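This part of the workshop introduces the protein records we will be handling. The question running through the whole workshop is how a given chain folds. To make this concrete, we reproduce a full record directly below:
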Amino acid sequence: MYKPKLRRSGVYGMELHGSVRVYPGPAVKIPVNEPETARAIFPTKANHWPLFDPVAVRSRGIKPRVNERWCMNRVVSHKTRADGLTRREFLAAAGGMAASLAWSAHGQPTPPTSEPVIDIHQHTNYRDRTNAQLVAHQRALGITQTILLPAGRLFGLDAGCGGNESVMQLAREFPKEFVFFANEVADLPEARQEIEKYLKRGAIGIGEQKFNVESDSSYLESIAGIAREFRVPVLMHFQFGTYNTSIERFHKILEKFPGVNFIGHAQTWWGNIDKKHDQTVLYPTGRVEPGGITDRLLRDYPNMFADMSAGSGLNALLRDEEHTVAFMVRHQDKLLFGTDCNDALGRGPGCQGAQTLAAVRRLAPEKKIERKLLYDNARTLFKLG
């Protein structure tokens, strides 16, 4: 069996940026996709080489090339062209990616569960990931319905994410699998007009609100006012000193708009599960003392919910697992599963979303709570079928 060397770098989303070296060994069965999917995973942009899509349509036995170096996002080889690959290169890439998949004890990829799962946090064009790769990623994870969160017209959510038109088009192409939010930079004069435009076209929420404003600012009051008028939730990215700052004052918005549901997300939101949290630390470690700002907001305000996605959510789940179990019990009706990862495989050590999904299933103290976190809470909050 192949033993890939994996090197992880970076905290953001826990992406796998390191290389995978394929070693000599016996042939393995590699899923080979239908032509339209295969074309989709060969982006035409320069220096963006193909990813292997693990969604199996049929299989064939192959041997990857020996000692070829592969990255999750591009091929590292002596050739630097971007006008397509030979069949041999494609098969080698497939072998390299297959080596990083999760395998069961019987030597086959572990299939996703048949139970429905709602992912409340994904993006189009995330770090140049194509729509076809996103669709394949969600299917590989076993996600049955995904909420797409657009960027505003500026900044791309600091990750090159697609805007309102992008998420709406993908949701219309796959209406059973995707729904979408509306968004705009909170302090732009035209924010109301842009958000209302897409709410009227079918958006079911507002966000991801990830902009440099205060958590109790007049700009957020305006966003909350739109949400109240259209009866939709707002998803907030809290990050100390950068986005929706001064989380300690956010309770004012919750009190002023009791009929609007808000969803907390990101580093400062999840750091504040700890009563002793240092606001300057974005990815805290160690034991958690209950009673932090996040804990209190979820406890005290019926209109406050939590998005477990991204590296920050995963970090909060894993840093103190004893606390996590109690936290899940305490807030079982408020926690929502999301991925917010930008890889294209949907499994293996490079997929933070897969790690979050596994952590929820492992740590949920009972099946009923697991189903609430992965499906029931989102279905109720967003009124999904």
Q: What stands out?
A: The chain has two domains: 12-98, 118-382. The chain has a mean pLDDT of 78.
